[in-house]
Amino acid sequence: MSKVSFIQEEMAQRNEKAVIGFWIYLMTDCVLFASLFATYAVLHKNTYGGPGSKDIFNLPYVLVETLILLTSSFSAGIATYSAYLYKKAQTVIFLIITIVLGLTFLIMELSEFSHLIRIGDSFRRSGFLSSYFALVGTHGMHILFGLIALSVLVCQIMIKGLNRNVLRRINLISMFWHFLDVVWIFIFTIVYLMGVIK
Amino acid sequence: MYLFSFLLLGRLTLKAIPSDTITRGGALLVLLAPLGLAALLTYKKKWKWLYKNWLTTLDPKKIGVMYIILASVMLVRAGVDALMMRLQQATSAGASNGFLSANHFQQVFSAHGTIMIFFVAMGLMFGLINLVVPLQIGSRDVAFPFLNSVSFWLYTAGLIIVNLSLVLGTFSIAGWLAYPPLSELKYSPGVGVDYWIWSLQIAGIGSLLSGINFIVTILKMRVKGMNLMKMPVFTWSVLGALSLVIFAFPILTATLLLLTLDRNLGTHFFTAGGGGNAMMYVNLIWAWGHPEVYILILPAFGVFSEVVATFSRKALFGYKTMVWAIWAIVLLSFTVWLHHFFTMGAGANVNAFFGIMTMIIAIPTGVKIFNWIFTMYKGRISFATPMLWFMGFVVLFTIGGVAGVIMAIPAADFQLHNSLFLVAHFHTMIVSGVLFGYFAGFTYWFPKIFGFKLNERLGKYAFWCWLVGFILAFVPLYILGMMGATRRLNHYPSGLGYQPLFIVAGIGAGIIALGVAFQVLQIGYSIYKRKEYKDTTGDPWNARTLEWSIPSPAPFYNFAKRMEVSTKDAFWEMKQRKSLDQGEYEDILVPKNSPIGMLIGFTSLAFGFAFVWHIWWLSGLSLIALISIVIYRLSQDNIESFISKDKLRKLDISRKAEG
Ligand code: HEM
Ligand SMILES: [Cu+2]
Fold first, then answer.
1. Ligand nearest to the CA of B427
2. Angstrom distance (rounded) from CA B108 to CA B563
3. Which ligand neighbours the alpha carbon of B515 most closely?
4. B54: closest CA among B68, B38, B44, B65?
5. At A36, which CATH number?
6. What is the sign, positive or negative, of the torsion defined by CA atoms of B205, B222, A167, B145?
7. B165-195 pLDDT, tens per residue?
8. B208 at the A interface (CB within 8 A)?
């Protein structure tokens, strides 16, 4: 075997390992969110004289947030696809679109938070609000880290081009991004939708 | 002035330096030990050697050795805690108050429990996994070598944080699981609980990453021909344990996070008022905690499976049932957590369910015990030290198991809950199961890593001290528990008749300490005699699995040739068929050393420490540094070196000529 083909084989294996490892990591993250969901389920009635979910959630606003996040996932998908076609410019553009949409989502979430805090319904108000802020905020933290990762990735593509390592990372980060979408769907359904309907 | 100091140092002031003599002594030890080591290194001009060969290494064998060294030091550290508690309880009856204040006693048992579980048992476990798993599956490395070093350094960071509490401030008084509301800000306003939180949070994330790493290693890096049902049982057990890690540790991460929020941001997850729910904490922490005990014990079971087969010169009896038993335990261990708080009032039906599940989980465990015994049946048993540890384990573990099944009956548990009976039970399981298991594994695999065997006679002395000491130290606790003595007592009235039993327990603990001394002596003496004890064959025990097919100490590339196996106990088969030297040389890539794992560890340490003391600028800074370091690492190319097959052949031949 020549050195080149040997290294190629190594790299293919490495890809496979990275993908499996990352899947497992996502599973662990699922458990983390499951714990927070469980906490929310236990505490969501403990309003301690403060507002309940009906009183504070603004469904149309959250729906817009949701649509923005879903769109960002879509553009992340296109970016990955373009990367595998070695279309560098297109990849970068769609990654930047993803970042912008993700950032918008995050800002909307933060402004919702700051609104709640300003009107006195902060995480200190009650067990319910604590668990709400923790669940949604943890998702937000993930989005933030995703945004950092995406930005680093964009820089790496600009500097190094679409090399093997970069391709692998695009794949992993878009997995991460889709995962956050799925978690958000659960948050949207369980926290917001069911919270307002009940 | 005050504001300035607050901005700069948070709540860290001169008052944090301990004032009473005992704590000062401890602090001095914690400070002097590393300083002494540093002085020695400087004197011997060994810093460079340490840095190049150990601190920056990505070789799992070396990382494994570092885990075991730190875990052993922590065994002594937490062992001293145990001796202090034994001394206190032996002397603190009636008018006498012993030598520890109530508060100090609480810190001691909290530190003892925390360190024993997280830094002794987990450390020994990950140490052995690092040493053995890649070798056993015929692999050159783990799936993510760099991540492995990060895991190790996060473990180290957690370990340093827990020990810093001796030097600056105080440790938690809330026990090893820090139940709220006691662990909430209102009742524990100091830094103790924060030390506990950050130590576990950082070490726990390290364990989680290790879990992912080794699962991928086992799934993807087995040698050709070793399908899952041909895997050695130790590797199987590790796979089971680490599957538990990836499902249980995120729960711990989440729980600690919520407690952090309660303490720092005034949320109400577990507080007594404000709509919090302390029972939820207890549920969450045990949803991690129960699987945790199986995480610790499954690999130890795996060790015993290897040891019993090797020293009985027989294939393990019931390989398939062994594998099934492991997975039954893995699944069931998520269905029993409530047995830790039957008394909390979940209701009779819930208690009945969890009681029955707890009894059911004893069945696969029993299956394993019988499999080992059947393996020994008609075997040609040699009673080397690993085998002695196993025999001790079988006896003690069965006793402890019966005690466990008794407590699984909710009605009985209402009497025994929180008593010394419980303390005796879990020590029986964890000392005989976990510690004896890892001691056996350490003795067994030692020659593979270091190239020489350990002295058998001193090992046997150590074993007998541990066994006798253990019985003396813990049988009295079963009795005391029946007499109504609760756990965590720093003082009791003299009329209760407890004192004689506590004195016996104290003597037992002293004998265990003697056992530890023999272990230290054993290692020292064996190093001194290493030429004489040299393992020239690579297979000192006439063993069965692949790690014994290579020279000892295992070279950095593990296997020079690409092999193929066709049966389980592959090396034994090869020996029978006399086809030892099979396979082809091939090119390999070896990861280059990197200091970044260490850097990540120390940055996390700074982050945790700053958080404990509310030095916000430092925690912000270290968080940014952490992210930047990770980004830097991800941008590095050229992180491995290429070794051609010719070079590998030369290395291999010269290696074998040496042996
Ligand atoms: C080797 C000899 C050991 C001795 C003599 C010893 C002794 C003790 C004593 C006296 C206590 C306090 C009991 C009480 O509440 O009154 C204790 C608690 C505890 N020990 Fe050990 N121990 C030993 C080994 C271990 C090991 C190996 C582990 C785990 C790996 C361990 C884990 C714990 C835990 C988790 C607690 C509970 C701490 C708490 O109450 O929060 N111990 N031990
Ligand atoms: Cu349990």
1. 1
2. 51
3. 1
4. B65
5. 1.20.120.80
6. positive
7. 999 999 999 999 999 999 999 999 999 999 9
8. yes
Q: Which of A14, A19, A31 to mutate to test the interface with B (most CBs of B within 10 A)?
A: A31
Give the pLDDT confidence score for residue B618 in this predicted structure: 96
* Two structure tokens written together for B333: 């261990």
Residues 133-152 of A with CB under 8 A from B: 133-134, 138, 148, 152
Q: Could you tell me if residue A26 is inside a domain?
A: yes
- pLDDT for B332-350, tens place per residue? 999 999 999 999 988 899 9
To the nearest whole Å, the CA of B266 is away from the closest chain A CA by 6
Single-letter amino acid, residue B94? G
* pLDDT computed for residue B11 by the predictor: 87
Write the DSSP string, B209-266: HHHHHHHHHHHH-PPBT--GGGS-HHHHHHHHHHHHHHHHHHHHHHHHHHHHHHHHH-
Please state, rounded to an integer, the average pLDDT across all residues of chain A: 94
Given a cut of 80, whether residue B658 has pLDDT beyond it is: no
B5: tokens are: 């100091």
Is B509 in contact with B435 (CB distance < 8 Å)? no
Is the CB of A48 less than 8 angstroms away from the CB of B274?
yes
Question: Residue A48 is nearest to which of B254, B262, B275, comparing CB atoms?
Answer: B275
3-state secondary structure of B182: coil
Per-residue pLDDT reduced to its tens digit, B206-233: 999 999 999 999 999 999 999 999 999 9
Tell me how long chain A is: 198
Please tell me the total count of domains within chain A.
Answer: 1
Residue A52 lies in a domain: no
Nearest CA-CA partner of B147 in A148, A194, A22: A22
Minimal Cα distance from A10: which residue of B? B589
pTM of the model: 0.97
* Tokens 């995962």, located at residue: A179
* The pLDDT of residue A198: 66
The mean per-residue pLDDT over the stretch B79-104 comes to 95
pLDDT tier, B1 (very low <50, low <70, confident <90, very high otherwise): low
Give CA separation, B605 vs B153, B155, B170, B377, B621, in Å.
9, 10, 17, 51, 12
CB pairs under 8 A between A and B: 120
- List the domain range (segments joined by +) for residue A184: 3-44+57-197
Evaluate whether residue A50 is within a structural domain: no
The 3-state DSSP class for residue B578 equals coil
B519 lines ligand 1 (CB under 6 A): no
Average pLDDT over residues A25-46: 97
The answer, yes or no, to whether any atom of ligand 1 lies below 6 A from the CB of B488, is yes
Contact assignment for A35 to B250 by CB distance below 8 Å: yes
Instruction: Give tens-digit pLDDT for B113-136.
Output: 999 999 999 999 999 999 999 999
Distances (CA, A) of A166 to A2, A91, A153, A173: 24, 11, 7, 10
What 3-state DSSP class applies to B268?
Answer: coil
Angstrom distances, CA of residue B316 to CA of B312, B533, B569, B602, B634 = 9, 28, 9, 44, 44
Residues of A in contact with B284 (CB under 8 A): 35, 38-39
Q: Is the CB of B82 within 6 Å of ligand 1?
A: yes
Residue A189: DSSP 8-state: I
Residue A49 within any structural domain of the chain: no
Q: For residue B289, which ligand has an atom nearest its CA?
A: 2
On whether any CB of chain B is under 8 Å from the CB of A128, the answer is yes
Q: Distances in Å between the alpha carbon of B122 and those of B75, B189, B601?
A: 11, 29, 17
The residue to mutate among B172, B423, B435, having the most atoms of ligand 1 within 8 angstroms of its beta carbon, is: B423
pLDDT of B659 reads: 59
Residue B314 Cβ < 6 Å to ligand 1:
no
B285: nearest CA in chain A?
A35
Nearest CA distance, B652 vs chain A (angstrom): 20
Residue with tokens 């590095």: B636
